[in-house]
Design a protein that fits this description.
About 45% of the residues lie in helices and about 15% in strands. With about 190 residues, it is an alpha+beta fold. The protein has one domain. The chain is globular and about 45 Å long. The structure holds zinc ion (ZN).
């Protein structure tokens, strides 16, 4: 079978509907796997900061799309992007935030090498924070906190709106950089 390049509009519609139904307003992260027609294949529950899918499940189901929610308005994390690049059958990885959905699609030439992506994302993150630092005196404190949290393997819990905005900006900037360098289509849509 020829590997399709993109999900059909009908499949995307079904996925979008299921996301709104199953991912909004949760107090924890939930992961959904979809097939090419937009049928829900699998659901996994996580905690407030992350959710994991067993590798064996991915290999068996070979989903065409992933979707999961973030409790705050954050685009794909580094882990979300790297996970996608390991799965050649995956056409789209999606994140549902508080008010928007973020859709990152597979480049036409396939997902880039995960190791190369990890390096790239680390640099992109540093660059995003540096830009933030230029305009925001609180940024170096935020960066320290981010690094500490990263060491614990989870996301920080933003405690005020300003931090939330700083985080959201950096996540978004990093995904946009990935999208432009690796030619992976990236779309942000408001949730209904
Ligand atoms: Zn995530």
């Amino acid at each position: 079978m020829v590997h399709p390049q993109a999900l059909t509009p009908l499949a995307l519609q079904r996925i979008a509907r299921t996301e709104v139904e199953l991912l909004r307003g949760l107090d924890h992260e939930r992961w959904l796997l979809f097939d090419l027609d937009g049928n829900l294949l699998y659901t996994a529950e996580g905690d407030r900061y992350q959710v994991a899918i067993p590798g064996a499940v991915l290999r068996r189901l070979r989903p065409a799309a992933f979707s999961h929610n973030h409790l705050w308005e954050l685009a794909h994390s580094e882990g979300d992007i790297v996970t996608a690049t390991h799965e050649d059958f995956l056409l789209e990885t999606r994140v549902v935030g508080a008010a928007h959905r973020y859709r990152l699609a597979r480049p036409k030439t396939g997902w880039p090498d995960p190791l190369e992506v990890e390096d790239f994302l680390r640099d992109a993150w540093i660059e995003e924070w540096a830009m933030l630092e230029d305009g925001d005196p609180a940024a170096s404190r935020l960066l320290r906190r981010r690094l500490l949290e990263q060491a614990r393997g989870c996301y920080a819990d933003p405690t005020d709106q300003r931090e939330e905005i700083a985080w959201a900006t950096c996540y978004l900037g990093r995904v946009e950089q990935f999208s432009s360098v690796f030619e992976a289509p990236f779309v942000v849509e408001p949730l209904p």
